[in-house]
Automatic annotation (TrEMBL):
It comes from the Eukaryota. Keywords: Secreted, Signal. The lineage of its organism: Eukaryota, Metazoa, Ecdysozoa, Arthropoda, Hexapoda. It holds the Pfam family MRJP. Belongs to the major royal jelly protein family. Residues 1-18 form the signal peptide. This is Major royal jelly protein 2-like. The gene is LOC108744073. It is found in: Secreted. GO terms for cellular component: extracellular region. PANTHER family: IP19120P (PTHR10009:SF8), PROTEIN YELLOW-RELATED (PTHR10009).
Amino acid sequence: MFFKFILGLLICLIRVDSLCEKELLRSIEWVGGPFDFETSAMKSLLTSSDKYINKNIISSRGQIFEDSAILAFPRFKCGNPATLVKLSLKWKGCTPLLEPFPCWSSQEINNCKSLQSVVDVFIDPLGVCWVLDAGIINTLESSVRTCAPKVVAFNLKTGRQLKSLDPTGLVEKTSRLQYLIVEYTDGGEPYVFVVDASTASILVFDVIHDKSMRVVLPKEAATGCSQKDVLYAAVVQKEDGFNYLLFTYLCGLRMFAIRTDILRSGSLSGNVVDLGLKPGKIVILGTDFGSAIFFRYEGKDEVFRWDSNDHFKKNKFISVYKSKPGFLVSQVMPDIKRQKMRVLESNFPDFLQGTVGCGAVQQINIIGETKS
């Protein structure tokens, strides 16, 4: 009798756990920036002083950590009170609340110890959140440099700041820092790669030994560009046992790769691999932390997957997701805990044109799942 009771209890617990996991796989949607303000008075004060303008807020990059999404909200326009937030995948109710990460005081504009405008996020295998702070706000209005750019690392469990990297000696006035990648050597030492589109270079940071350098990419990377635009980059793990950094300009004609161990040495001469001609302007959206790259074509709503162990040919590109009309994916994010791939998407074209009404619609969805 007791055994039957225990068995029944275990079955109930399994069913409840299964239902909870199913809840975590649903579509998540919010409009603008529904922040978790400390008090209603705080929200009123920020609103009345134009420091909180809901229609001016949108997320463009993010990563999944356990049961949360860590999202970058670049300060494209005035009125964004928080540029790095945490969103719980367990939220219940109509609208999820955005919690500034690690706290409200870390979001203060003109305080160079705080975050100014986070443009990219990377979560490493140790649960460390690395963020790229461009130091420039209101980039879609009248750009203002409030602080020098920086890379900051936070412990995701505690919110404690672990490291701050200063690229000042590696950048120029025209530099445009766009993407951030972190990898660990076989010996467990972290290296940070930051993409500088304007100077066609990769900033390499040896975190443990506090060293850094700027590695200039070959001029062929910009072939086809009348003006350097977005420089996309991603790291993949290939079956030969090496990690490769793939890179391409949006305007560029070709895709390139370089082994990361060679990149860390600072010598690219003769080691950059031309993967081939692109069939169109490609927007790299992320990886599966393995050999697969996810991308879409500029302005197009269909997401493709390419296994970097295969030849870079159009017939090797597999369609895996399609946004609804008016939406574009800005990031593909591995959800390691649930062995799923998620997308961050929004009506970003409307946001650019200023036609979002009360706010931009943003969603986190699962690749391969029916939206609910």
